[in-house]
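pasting for ref. prot 1 ->
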Amino acid sequence: MQLEIRPDPAEVGRARRWARSRLAGSGIGIDEPLAETLILLVSELVTNAVVHTGCPAVLRLSLPGAAQECATVRLEVADRSGRAPVPRCADDDATGGRGLALVDGLADRWGWSSEGAGKRIWCELDRAAESKGAASAYGSGASAYEGLAYEAV
């Protein structure tokens, strides 16, 4: 499943609605912590693509089938910008700059790779056991990213 994203901040809301609509056939309830975490990750990765690249992007979502209790959800955003994602240190008053820290704290795994003239940023959530994403969403996860310490609350 994929959605074409225009370089427009309004696309973030459309991407969230699209992702929610895809959860129905996956067996993941919209009110499950996994679904809430997934929607937040969609927001963060699509926002990064729209705000920092100014290029169109493609959102891809791989969901398990309804019968699978143990499965991995994968989210990818591919864009045409060759610029690597760069974490930022945001102070308490900043309204942005926490996206990659949130992705690192909420996803079970994430990364990025060059793809042609652009890049692909991906993250995965494990459905089986309680993932670190579900725990972090409720303030119990702490992590470090490239020497930057933070706590997801």
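and prot 2 ->
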Amino acid sequence: MKIIGVIPARYESSRFPGKPLALINGKPMVWWVYKQAEKVSEIDEIVVATDDERIMKCCEENGMKAMMTSKDHRTGADRVAEVASRTDGDIYLNIQGDEPLIDPEEIRQVIHILDDPEVEYAALRQRITDKEEFTNPNVVKAVIDLKGDALYLTRCAAPYNFESEACTGWHLVGLYSYRRQFLLDFLSWGQSALEISEKGIECNRALEHGRKLRLDETSFSSFGVDLIEQIAQVEEIMKERGITP
């Protein structure tokens, strides 16, 4: 099975334009993600999927394989799907380009969910116990069945507990693995009603079309960079851990 890791990288961002190129200890953010992915021996090839010549040039200058993709994609999964349509992999990974500290073992975990031949689409989940996180619309909550498959993804506090104020939901971790044919189907569907109403939760597109999303619990935690001010936090963590380019 050929496994291709894809790092979607858009230049435009309402809160942090040019985020993939933001320097962290002298290296662009996307470079750090790429290097973490390179530590995963299961991955046969890594591709930065971008829609911007500046990111493409950066990748070329820093020894990273990259591919120009359409500017019309609304989600990272659509961008990964375009890569799948143009390459010959069996399994594809959607590795977030704004997590320079992502643990290689976390990537391995989402790969091996697909060891089950019945699974074609997978991601990770973490338990929510904090009420503020549970009610935060920026945190995507997953409602799952007894097998660990997603029933629904929402920005609301779900599932609601009438019996107590306990927060017992699951937080969706934005790291995905897919089989190639699933991605090609996903791209052909276009955005769905539930995906749009939940402000871009792309997983709901698959659920609306009757496809399953397996969610395994993970103990790994990462640090996603949403604002330029968080660069200093990442550099401090790298300093503490002795991480250098």
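The radius of gyration is 18 Å.
The first strand starts at residue 3 and ends at 9.
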